[in-house]
Predict the structure.
Amino acid sequence: MYKQLLLESRVIMSSVVITGIQGLPEVQPGDNLSTLILDAASKQSFTFVDRDILVVTSKIVSKAEGRTIRLDQVAPSPIAMHYSKLLHMDPRKVEIVLSEARRIVRMSEGLIIAETRHGFICANGGIDQSNMEPGIIALLPKNPDQSARRIAQKIKKKIGVDVAVVITDTFGRPWREGQTNVAIGVAGLNPMKPYFGMKDSFGYELKVTNVAVADEIASASELVMGKIDSVPVAVVRGYRYEPAKGSSRRLVRRASRDLFR
């Protein structure tokens, strides 16, 4: 009983609210995402405040930045043709994956696990055809951290509010079924929350705990965004994050620390 009371005394009561921003139009190349987001928020009477966390799916960032490609404009290379037969995949998609990849990790029927130039390891190098017009493939943003900073800066300029920004994509997970949203772009917050040197409720010193809060924010936000609900933006309010320049690079494990590479 005493231990339970001690634990409860150390908990700071708080609440986190996640709001989906609805009504964004179909994003086109060259669109100003900050303007589209602010207009949609205004229409649903949502007002941003300092320290809100704006969560944006990478798909609309890619669309706005012109990071899409038409399948009918892709000419498969001989190596793409070779692997497409083995994998039973469209050779044009294989060509796009190969062109976006830094390294191929594994291949299986209908699937290529690849490391992107960003350092992300994901299915098909992050290319995606869901929620896209037929024949159009979305690529990951070239520099998601920079994209996140740009959105945050434009919102600050337009309405004078400081927000952190997390850009998300849906990844699978080794040893776990299903997919979850993760942070691939971060601005304005420390993506990690280290507990090194702190003591738990029983007095044990924490030595390795380093929580990936940007990934947790991304994953939680997906609950209101959904995959087919046309809600590509959400706002997380109430989480006391550590302000920082921020970068998703900190979430990528270095090769020297990767025991499974």
Observations:
- Residues 51 and 240 are 8 Å apart (CA to CA).
- Helices lie at 2-10, 33-43, 58-64, 78-87, 91-100, 144-159, 213-225.
